[in-house]
Write a sequence for this structure.
């Protein structure tokens, strides 16, 4: 039976990804720690997969997890998008009674309009949404509330005062499912990489031009500070490709490697995780 690690308590959005992707018979283990600690726990512990959020359509990138992809030996085997619905959970009967709201900082960011309308409420950031729901429910303090999911409301018997307080109902978070070993889906059509270039004029342009020259569609470009090199950066790239033309991907990355100072292939996987996972010990893609 596979062991899957995620950040947060049962009822968190990462927990929901685990249930949806791996099923109820898998062993899902939540840790209420920062993402870096979660990654350290995964690489040193007896786990098969790790679930990490990477970006949100409203709040943007989860920057520390791009850094974790750089620092840790993690391999992307799948991605999954989850529609995020934030609910205000509280024992209070009316909104005016609430003085504090607890949640993950990204959830708080995604509910800015709610706090603009209720400036008397203090925002308190904690490690995850479900942990916030459990903490506030157990406190029995009527003036406190949490922003969390319906799953958390049911698990912790914590009533919802207001449904869907997110700024935009078109709110989705993209999650990665990661392994310690390389893996790929049989119909992979997307890849993620990290690279850095020499600190010279035109270096980044020539590196990115490689994708255009091979007619590969970049869908994400993110820059992050390069450790120990002030004001220099590594770049995260997602790009899509036709599974039948994987040789083009190999040629592109071989050319990019010649232009880059550093290149790390994070994984080949299927967009939206509609296909089955090819586990790391199974046959890899042949080129």
């Amino acid at each position: 039976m596979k062991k899957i690690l995620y950040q947060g308590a049962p009822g968190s959005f990462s927990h929901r990804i685990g249930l949806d992707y791996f099923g109820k018979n898998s062993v899902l283990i939540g840790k209420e720690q920062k993402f870096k600690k979660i990654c350290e726990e995964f690489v040193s512990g007896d786990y098969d997969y790790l679930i990490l959020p990477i970006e949100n359509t409203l709040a943007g990138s989860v920057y520390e997890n791009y850094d974790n992809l750089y620092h840790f030996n993690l391999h992307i085997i799948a991605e999954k998008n989850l529609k995020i619905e934030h609910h205000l959970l509280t024992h209070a009967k009316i909104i005016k009674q609430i003085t504090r709201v607890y949640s993950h900082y990204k959830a708080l960011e995604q509910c800015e309009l709610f706090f603009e309308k209720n400036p008397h409420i203090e925002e308190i950031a904690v490690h995850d949404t479900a942990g916030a729901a459990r903490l506030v429910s157990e406190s029995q303090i009527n003036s406190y509330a949490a922003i969390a999911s319906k799953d958390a409301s049911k698990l912790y018997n914590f009533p919802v005062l207001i449904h869907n307080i997110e700024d935009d109902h078109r709110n989705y978070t993209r999650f990665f499912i990661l392994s310690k070993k390389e893996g790929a889906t049989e119909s992979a059509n997307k890849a993620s990489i990290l690279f850095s270039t020499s600190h010279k004029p035109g270096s980044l342009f020539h590196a990115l031009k490689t994708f255009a020259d091979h007619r590969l569609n970049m869908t994400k470009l993110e820059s992050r500070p390069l450790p120990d090199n002030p004001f220099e950066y590594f770049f995260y790239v997602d790009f899509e490709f036709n599974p039948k033309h994987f040789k083009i991907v190999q040629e592109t990355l071989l050319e990019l490697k010649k232009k880059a100072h550093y290149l790390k292939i994070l994984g080949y996987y299927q967009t939206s995780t509609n296909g089955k996972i090819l586990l790391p010990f199974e046959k890899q893609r042949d080129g």
